[in-house]
Specification:
Number of helices: 19
Shape: elongated
Radius of gyration: 24 Å
Structural class: mainly alpha
Oligomer: single chain
Length: 393
């Protein structure tokens, strides 16, 4: 049974989105496509232990899902035209359009007419196949709330005329950036909580799919490399008691070198240096350094300068200020953090950065004041606990 479960899990990761996308193209019914695909996987759990794992598991599941969709349409007395359109009589269960279908599905789920929260949820559910409960846990909402969010998103797509297509050339770059932003938001939702690795793993898998489908897009490569570099630190981010550790405190021997190497290889083939590529290069500087003190902070500051020129942001300015503090000393960093602080009111990482730099400068009383301010603003229990530990120290 373990072999069957592993096989089903593997094909779920690799082909859920392809199967759903193909059914949506044939039927135009998002709910039907998801339900029929879910039924096909449930049937596999029943049949494969007795009949054996098929030679082509994805093709078996595609056929089962299409047959289930036909059954549902018949039971609902659907029009003959829809049945004829979906019919798989004499049709190969492995369509040449499956890759394009998956890309169509991602662009549709990430359409800018949908609220951002709905785009993320719909992508994780429809393209990656995560359960409603898994997505709800990652985004700290109830399962009912998440289910309603998904229903509203599907209805908007079906009734508001949102096209199921890859956008035309003049809109492609902008819309691709929207897809990448959704995937990075999904990754961060899973990465920020070590118990939700399924969400971040799904985001990485979807980013891999975008790179496979659009191999010349440097920013897609940059995002995938960035995710892998960050994911390499997942196991080292917490101590044995489950408390978050800073980058400086982490045991770097626990970083996943295979993720770092894969990310580096993907990054080396990016032809342009956009925001995701530059962020990945910064993450790579950290990944290859043996310690915080041996990190190439001059290179990181230079990369932040380049990043600010293409994607100006006060958060990037804050990160650059911290890097300057590591390169030139805490007083230099503090001066820059103070300059950017007015642009980030209520952002807990501003007083947290000031506290760390003040502590390095030996101004422990002032550091304590800033740590208390950061604790009051920190959004999660884990972050508050980390800051409290640093205050206690």
């Amino acid at each position: 049974m373990t072999e069957v479960a592993d096989a089903i899990a593997a094909v779920h990761r690799s082909d859920w989105g392809r199967i759903v996308a193909g059914l949506i193209r044939h039927t135009g019914d998002w709910t039907l496509a998801e339900d029929a695909t879910q039924d096909a996987f449930a049937t596999a759990f029943e049949r494969w232990p007795k009949d054996g794992i098929p030679d082509k598991p994805a093709a078996w599941l595609t056929t089962a899902a299409r047959n289930r969709a036909i059954d549902r349409l018949r039971s609902a007395k659907a029009e003959r035209s829809r049945l004829a359109e979906l019919s798989i009589s004499g049709e190969s269960s492995e369509s040449n359009d499956t890759e394009d279908d998956r890309l169509l599905l991602m662009f549709t789920c990430c359409h800018p007419a949908l609220p951002l929260a709905a785009r993320v949820a719909l992508t994780l559910r429809t393209v990656a196949g995560l359960s409603v409960a898994e997505i709800a846990r990652a985004f700290l909402v109830s399962e009912t709330t998440m289910a309603q969010r998904l229903v509203r998103a599907r209805r908007k797509i079906e009734h508001a005329g949102i096209p199921y297509r890859i956008p035309p050339g003049e809109l492609l770059e902008e819309r691709l950036n929207g897809v990448l932003a959704v995937l990075y938001l999904a990754f961060n939702a899973g990465y920020s909580d070590v118990t939700h690795s399924d969400v971040s793993a799904s985001a990485i898998a979807l980013a891999e799919a975008v790179v496979d489908l659009m191999p010349l897009e440097s920013e897609a490569r940059g995002l995938l490399a960035l995710m892998l570099m960050q994911n390499s630190r997942r196991e080292a981010r917490v101590d044995p008691s489950g408390e978050l550790l800073t980058l400086e405190e982490q045991d770097r021997s626990r970083w996943d070198r295979s993720d770092i190497q894969r990310g580096g290889a993907i990054l080396s083939s990016a032809r342009a240096r956009g925001p995701y590529v530059l962020q990945a290069l910064i993450a790579q500087c950290h990944a290859v350094a043996g310690s915080a003190t041996s990190t190439d902070w001059s290179q990181i500051v230079a990369l932040y300068d380049e990043l600010l020129s293409v994607a100006p942001s006060p958060v990037i300015e804050l990160n650059r200020a911290i890097a300057v503090g590591m390169r030139d000393g805490p007083d230099a960093g503090l001066a820059l953090v103070d300059q950017v602080s007015a642009q980030l009111p209520g952002f807990h990482l501003v007083p947290a950065a000031q506290a760390d730099l003040l502590r390095r400068a030996g101004r422990v009383v002032d550091a304590g004041v800033r740590y208390r301010e950061a604790i009051a603003l920190a959004p999660t229990v884990e972050e508050r606990a980390q800051l409290q530990r640093r205050l206690d120290e």
